[in-house]
Amino acid sequence: MSGGARLLGVLLLALTIEPAAAQVAPSPSETAGYTGLFAAAASGDAGRIAALVAGGERPDARDGRGRTPLHVAAHRGHHAVMRALVAAGADPNARDADRYDIVTIAAVAGDVPTLEVALGIGGSSRNVTSRYDGTALIAAAHLGHVEVVRALIRAGAPLDHVNNLGWTALIESIVLGDGGVRHTETLRALVEAGASVNLADREGRTPLALAEARGYDTMMQLLRRAGARAGGTS
Length: 234
Description:
Blueprint: H1 3-16, H2 28-33, H3 36-43, H4 49-54, H5 69-76, H6 79-87, H7 102-109, H8 112-120, H9 136-143, H10 146-154, H11 169-175, H12 181-193, H13 207-214, H14 217-225
């Protein structure tokens, strides 16, 4: 492949992949228009939650982007509000209009404390989220949020889930990473947890082949020590 063709391929790939960080937090104008549970969630006023629900407000009401008050609280990192909303009946695994749940919201933000709260109140590390049919683990691996990756692994996140781009979390740490420390340590955490090092993408390229193509030497060494092959699938 010529250099020009390779560059075109990279640009086209960049245009077709929504960054994990593209999930949308409430804007200042949206927040200013919130009332009731949404206003309490945005401001961190946990003390109002039970009374508002007792007064007839629905804990799983939706705003214009399909967010529930719980999504708003997760975006803001308001842990007491998150707990109060679930205690009042909010669904901890609800998805917004972009199919993000509170676990994935925290994962994309690199917010381990909020992630731990989300998991503790019933959020699942196994949910399929986003328009790419991914997981919180895949999103965190994409971004190189290694501490989030480790927390999700401890929570039982599926290591080898394949999204609709044909990629696992391990593959995303390579193809959407930069080969630097954060993505390399993400790859290490996944390998040590038992993620498949030979599960190929839909073009048949293994993780080792993908790392070799990018010249990511440390990733290549990690994969080879784990028994990775340059070609073939398993």
